[in-house]
Amino acid sequence: MTATDRPWLSSYRKGTSTEIKPEFTNALDMFKAAVRRNPDLIAIKYFDGTVSVAELDAQSTALAAGLLANGFQKDDRLAVYLQNVPQFLVAMLATWKAGGVMVSVNPMNRSRELDYMLKDSGATVLLCLENLYSSVAKDVVPGTSVRTVITTSELDYQTRHDPRLFKDIKRERSAGTVDMLELIAKHRGETVPDVTLAPNDVAFLTYTSGTTGVPKGARNTHSNVVFNSQAYRDWIDLSSDEVILGVAPLFHITGLVSGVTVSFLLPATLVLAYRFDPGVMLDCIREHRPTFTVGAITVFIALSNAAGVEPADFASLNKIYSGGAAIAPAIADAFQARFGHQIHNIYGLTETTSPSHAVPLGAATPVDPTSGALSVGVPIFDTVVRIVDENGNELPVGEIGELVTEGPQVVDGYWNKPEETAKSIPNGRLYTGDVGFMDANGWFYIVDRKKDMINASGYKVWPREVEDVLYGHPSVREAAVIGVPDEYRGESVKAFVSLKPGTTATPEEIQAFCKERMAAYKYPRQVEIVDELPKTVTGKILRRELRDTK
């Protein structure tokens, strides 16, 4: 089924066109416009440190000059191996000003993963935290194409050095590296030649999580980035008055677009706090009073359970969106009842440069009465989404199949992987690997990943449905469901749960809770209570790791 004509959307988004006219040809021009419009605006707040738009412009130009002086050329790749720190934005802009491509690297990656990404991308420059260089990158770089290593510290750009995050972090310059702030100081005041960045030039390579195999570098082009930056702004009614809470990791496509490039477009202040810690983030919210954020649902679960949290703490956050992991209706309802704000669902992939679907701001999110799933929204502007069967045939309303997405946000392929591109993105249509359906009103629902389906006695069981029921238990904080071998059924359902602080529950009690609410073949035959569930840095629970340890 194709979702293109959605006249009912106008009742939620009055005055907004269903099409977006690109206002810029590349993402760098978005920032240059911000410099012209509001150079004195605070672009970044980082604990007690601030960086203005004008200063961000000056520092990124100086760093670009330093890159060029060290042999960086157009289309070269610069790998950024950082947490959520101001240096990330400086590096991104500097890379573009030097005509290059930024490669975002997960700071949790260790030697094997870093080695793969540096070699796959062919990066010639690595910019990383000092401690990541000494503990990981130092032994990896010699076998790669990296010619220049620039290091920096999370202690820079601030003086607070909160002990909850920075207690064991010290400055540690390594031989053979260049300090970022020293390089900026050396080239400050220099100009760089104007660079032409075409809409189809790659802005950054963002690597898929690797949960289904070897990570692939998605070619997020400048036109992809400009389109979805504008989509965020127009869909959510964002303005230059916003204060954006950068809770999503900046290396991830969600943080890159909903945080960084949207802040360039508006322009608006972006608040960063190094990495997610519930107590630190809660203090950050109290101090800086952000208005808009996008984060995994696990972030909001953690904040809800933080010591001393009060409804007043979230008073300013009136535009909350969540993506990257399934949201159980019980969690969304409990958050709204307690804090007075709706968590709006948003959905997309690395290959869609963040959103392809979203709930309109202020619209009540429907719940499918059959599966109990919370809708991920409707396709955003200019986006066509089809539900297809295993042969690629479109399915009617209500039928479950794979989501196939096409639109201006879909990448043109994977870096140096033509076969993978042809398989997953034929003719610009992205086969997402996510299974779901569309209802008669155009709302989309994700059932699960194709690979996670459980076959119990010939019946299909989608883990997401079982997890949604588990989240309804008053003691369950987080839940994940997998299939395990069963001599009688072939596979049966196993649930892993962590409990809310101060609560208790036995596996038998949780199993009985599910049994009362589900068909016999669906409820978990095994329940294991754990302290924490394994997650990606973006907050997505890793069922794969649970399968490996079952």
UniProtKB/TrEMBL annotation:
Residues 31-415 form the AMP-dependent synthetase/ligase domain. PROSITE patterns: AMP_BINDING. Keywords: Ligase. Residues 465-540 form the AMP-binding enzyme C-terminal domain. SUPFAM superfamilies: Acetyl-CoA synthetase-like. GO terms for molecular function: acid-thiol ligase activity. Pfam families: AMP-binding, AMP-binding_C. InterPro entries: AMP-bd_C, AMP-bd_C_sf, AMP-binding_CS, AMP-dep_synth/lig_dom, ANL_N_sf, ATP-dep_AMP-bd_enzyme. This is Unannotated protein. It comes from freshwater metagenome.
